[in-house]
Amino acid sequence: MSRANDLWDGNVKANHVRSLAILAAALVALVIAILLAAPTVTVPAQASRGEASSITFASDRKATADSPFNVYRMDADGRGPMNRLTDLSGSNVMPTWSPDGSRIAFVNSGLTGTPDIYRMDADGSNEASLTSGLLFEIEPTWLPGGRKIVFSDADDLYIMTLDVNGVTTGVPTRLTRNPGVDRQPTVSPSGKRVAFSSDRDGDYDIYVMKAAPESSTNRPVKLTRNTMPDTLPDWSPNGGRLAFSMGTIGARDIYTMKISLQDIDPPARVTSGAGDDSDPTWSPNGQKVAFSSDRSGDGEIWVVWADGTNASNLTSSPASEDLQPDWQPLQ
Questions:
Q1: Number of C-beta neighbours around residue 62 at 10 A
Q2: What angle do CA 125, 281, 207 make, to 5 degrees?
Q3: pTM score, two decimals?
Q4: Residue 41 has pLDDT above 70, yes or no
Q5: Would you say 101 and 331 are in contact if contact means Cβ atoms under 8 Å apart?
Q6: In Å, what is the CA distance from 74 to each residue of 46, 48, 52, 90?
Q7: pLDDT tens digits for range 238-284
Q8: Has domain 3-327 been given CATH number 2.120.10.30?
Q9: Residue whose C-alpha is closest to residue 74's, from 66, 65, 82
């Protein structure tokens, strides 16, 4: 088994036992990433001026045998209805908004359990496949303009191009080439750089490179140098900071750090506690971070100010797992 599959299995194990039972029957090792937990403050989340109105997330609420996980959309304050967007068979996970907030890319496992990247309109209509035939097509992230998507496929990162109708054109271009595992890409607001998590130096750290194929003139630069795994980066709207998870699965916290290729500032801790916090996503004004957490006992979506104050839950569904939030950009 490759290290990519080992990582995938480890991420799946990070979910609760009940979710594992559902997913094991339906997707052959697909469901994500690195999720959930920390201290608890249950003050209702207030939307700030400049925030977009919606957050998407993956959830197994109202799960069926044919569709264990689906993509949902809610108001950014968590008070409105939780609208299910996907209706494809298989698990639908890893939603990510296009830069203009009009489309959502996501991962669908299908009935075979092999993940492919799809896209749909913001209301869930016009679902269409963007990839097929590679090994593990997951973790999509858009470039500015909405015509390119970076994604991971097993051990490396790729970039695909879409036409004006959102249809894939040509063959995806491979961006990284390394014996290690390169995963979880996030694109800078300018579209010029890609940050990602990689174990190419032995443990998982955050790297950044130009949004072009890795070469002798485009070497990824290591941003974090912790003994704990650093994963799941998300680029701030002003391009100046990254949010990411630090720690072992089951005991992670959210951190932010200034992006500098010369002087590496120590990461600033945003969450803390006995649980698992992961999947950070910035609000459009850069003042808050939404994330997945199991601090209340099961997987929910939480939000916290970027300075670590006033953590509050956006979802509360005790019998389900809510994870992988993504904040809609300003339109």
A1: 13
A2: 115
A3: 0.84
A4: no
A5: yes
A6: 14, 16, 11, 22
A7: 999 999 999 998 999 999 999 876 656 789 999 998 889 999 999 99
A8: yes
A9: 82
